[in-house]
Design a protein that fits this description.
Blueprint (H helix, E strand, L loop, with lengths): L8 E2 L2 E9 L3 E7 L6 E8 L6 H16 L8 E8 L4 E9 L3 E3 L8 H20 L2 E2 L8 E4 L4 E3 L6 E2 L16 H4 L6 H17 L28 H4 L5 H10 L11 H18 L15
Antiparallel strand pairs: 1-2, 2-3, 3-4, 4-6, 5-6, 7-9, 8-11, 9-10
Helix pairs in contact: 2-4, 2-7, 4-6, 6-7
């Protein structure tokens, strides 16, 4: 797609900078000339039939963001479609600009900060579940931390309603739940696994073994014992608090019914853990709150 330069006008917005690019999309920082408000403008263009899924994902992202009113979900102000009613060729999402960095690129230095981020994310996911949606691709890359410490969940294009069986396997290999790989119903407990795998990575810098091996080959099924159980997070990082380790390992159970009952429960447990960490933060052993061990 043609590159827009600083100062160019796109759908009534002035381009300030390009901030991201994907397989069939580009995201610009733009400004409304009238209100002077700054937005993120995501442009998705269909060049081949294979690109249709990118248009579908962009529309799905907009649908969720407009249906779920929660500070932890990036807002989509408007959707602009180009082409005919039956054949959309180009789509623009006018989105809330989130000025921050992903959890993947900038992991927290302390357990207290990590648990705060985890709790905010869990609350946002819980709000999505209450609205009837499952993101089904939660990972550190999709959790953005702003300068003020607030959290936003982004990139919700793979979302689905609760309990469908998807026609194609979707998810990120290092965080994907067994039921996603083996095309079983997608439920809030699928998000709990994705989220648990994300917490595991942040705390240990290692990934849980999933049912989707490298090269897209399958490992085991939900009916056998071939899917390896991950080592406890506290075994890889002995500094991980006991209660936090217990929660993370509960979230990444292979069988969905063995995971926490809801994301609301996960958020509540994180809130209790955060309270415990804050209570001891003034003690002489407060330095042990550093995740990496570097005090």
């Amino acid at each position: 797609m043609p590159v827009k330069k600083k100062g160019d006008m796109v759908e009534g917005f002035r381009v300030l900078a390009e901030v991201g690019r994907g397989a069939a999309s580009v995201i610009y920082l733009v400004q409304d000339p009238k209100s002077k408000h700054v937005w993120a403008l995501k442009q998705v263009e269909k060049q081949t039939e294979k690109d249709q899924r990118f248009l579908d994902q962009a529309e799905a992202e907009a649908k969720v963001a407009q249906a779920v009113n929660h500070p932890g979900i990036r807002r989509v102000q408007k959707v602009i479609k180009k082409g005919s009613f039956l054949a959309v060729k180009e789509l623009y999402l006018v989105m809330e600009f989130v000025d921050g960095i992903s959890l993947e690129k900038h992991p927290p230095e302390t357990f207290e900060r990590a648990v705060d981020i985890f709790e905010q994310t869990a609350e946002a996911l819980s709000a999505m579940h209450e609205a009837g949606y499952v993101p089904a691709d939660m990972k550190p890359h999709n959790i953005i931390i702003s300068a003020d410490g607030s959290v936003k969940a982004i990139d919700l294009g793979q979302r689905c309603s609760i309990a469908p069986v998807k026609q194609r396997r979707q998810g990120t290999p290092d965080y994907i739940a067994p039921e996603q790989v083996h095309r079983r119903p997608i439920t809030p407990r699928t998000d709990i696994y994705n989220f648990g795998a994300s917490m595991y990575f942040v705390l240990t810098r290692q990934h849980v073994p999933t049912a989707l091996a490298k090269g897209d080959s399958l490992v085991g099924s939900l009916d056998d014992n071939l899917i390896a159980k991950p080592k406890p997070a506290s075994e890889l990082n002995p500094r991980v608090p006991t209660k936090l380790n217990e929660l993370v390992m509960h979230c990444v159970e292979v069988e969905p019914e063995n995971r926490p009952a809801s994301m609301h429960e996960v958020a509540d447990r994180l809130n209790l853990i955060l309270g415990m960490l804050r209570a001891k933060s003034g003690s002489p052993r407060a330095g042990l709150d550093a995740i990496s061990g570097e005090e």
